[in-house]
Sequence to fold (326 residues):
Amino acid sequence: MDDAKRHAAIVDLLRGRSRHGVVPFSELVRAALYAPGLGYYVTDRNRVGRSERADFTTASEVGAVFGELVAAAAESLVGDLSEHVLVEVGAEPGQSHFSTVTERFAGHVSCRVGQSAAIPARAVLFANELLDAQPFHRYLRTGGGWKELGVRVDGARLETVPMAEASSAASADFIASLPAAEEGWLLDAPLEAEDMLRTLLAGSWSGAALFFDYGRTVAQCLEGSPAGTARSYRRHRMSGELLEGLGSQDLTSHVLWDRLEPVMRACGFAGVRVDRQEAFFVLNAGRAMERLAAQGGPEVTGALRALTHPAHFGFKFQVMHGVRRA
Fold:
């Protein structure tokens, strides 16, 4: 199916779900990413990598050095890795960043974005750019208050419109929690990432949870992102054209760390904090970094620089982590 037909099929799907011709913005994102047979994350495509045909790169593309540092950090948090299963949620096909460390764990379970995994009794849960791949809501400051945005799908072209009411109780509660802001300010909120986090951390399994992603707090968004943080990615090009090419481009927004940290704590995790990626590795995998730098050549040194230097992944990405004891 070509891109135009895919986009048209998703719009038709949304029309069938619309109320008075409008769907919540989050519903459009959900369909664009996960509609069966149509969504960006449920069809076979080359999403991650450095090639021109891929859409974006992640820290996992650095390769085995990333896996080595994650394993070292996990060991500093939980101790003996041989007593824990490595559970990787949101993995992309063909990635090999854990190829040199899986034997240190009691086992390795991997599932793709949109799939679920049973978590063993003792585990190290790892996710790289999973939370930002969830549907997000959009909010507009207008008329002295906040309004959830919807998308009109019954016209000749898609357009965003303020909705008269919030699409759910969770959305209404979020609106009620927001402070005042300047007129016209946009705020993106992946509320469904909070639901996913609760699901992943449910149960009584013990171990560490490591979530690598890019995000901000609500206050930071309201200080420096007047147009919101939502973006589309295709062929390594970032764009604000969110209503085009549905199903053929990634749609994402920054996660809200101050909304996610309380979820981890409520699920019984201790020591919950968000560190810049560079700081997380320095604090929890410093010796491994020194060993790799001493033993490796220019390729390893380049990988370490890419993962920790502020100009690369080190500052842009953060790590939310915590430990739940048995």
